[in-house]
Amino acid sequence: MINLILLGLPGAGKGTVSERIVDKYHLTHISTGDMFREAMANKTKVGLEAKSYIDKGNLVPDEVTAKLVEERLNQPDIKEGFILDGFPRTTKQAELLDGILERVNKPLSNVISLDVNEQTLIERLSARFMCKNCGATYNKLTKMPKVEGTCDRCGGHEFYQREDDKPEVVKNRLEVNEKMNAPLKDFYEKKGLLTVIDGEQTPEKVFKDLDAVLSRD
Length: 217
What we know:
Rossmann fold, ATP-binding, Adenylate_kinase_lid-dom, nucleotide biosynthesis, kinase, zinc
């Protein structure tokens, strides 16, 4: 069983490589954003607790997010393992996750960090756009829809750029994320779990390097 955390700044390519890992290893991709949406839609106890913070425009406390992760990791679809995306973001969350994984008996097998320099990330993020209907992500540099103006996933025709992907916002966003990301890498390096992969390479080469790490286990 492969239980994996993917680290990397926004634009590093975590979403692209996650899709390939899921296809090959049949892991369950757990995104915190999706988790919040599902738990709130299903009106689970933790989902309603999270909603009470979100509705007031407040950040969801770490302990509530951790409860949500634990709820998700206990679901029966996680047979072959999981990829955690968006959690943990801080060392405090990483410590909470250690407790969760011990309770659900699903130890981490790998933590992989996709490292990309700041200028490349700014270019990638500034070129990113999304389908207004289903949220599928595209990129003017690397991933245009197969049919121009039509979403590959849902067939929608309306696209938009996230406010935080606009060039003037991107640099600050990367600096904030780097401050959170660096201590996390140190945390997992000390545990002997961290592998750093060059995210500047083509998506094919990034996946080949990542696959080599996962297939060792």
